[in-house]
Write a structure and sequence with these properties.
48 residues, rod-shaped, YSIRK_signal_dom, YSIRK-type signal peptide-containing protein
């Protein structure tokens, strides 16, 4: 818990949280793209 006047520490924590969230969103997008690619290959094999 931070004091109400500890603005620098609060700002630093918010910046770290923003960086972490942005990275996880990118990671999720890459994972979703790979899953879609895998499904397209699977569907291609079953149709042939």
């Amino acid at each position: 818990m931070l004091g109400k006047n500890n603005f620098k520490e609060r700002l630093r924590k918010m910046e770290l949280q923003a960086k972490k969230d942005r990275f996880s969103i990118r990671k999720l997008a890459v994972g979703a793209a790979s899953v879609l690619l895998g499904f397209s290959f699977r569907d291609n094999c079953t149709i042939s």
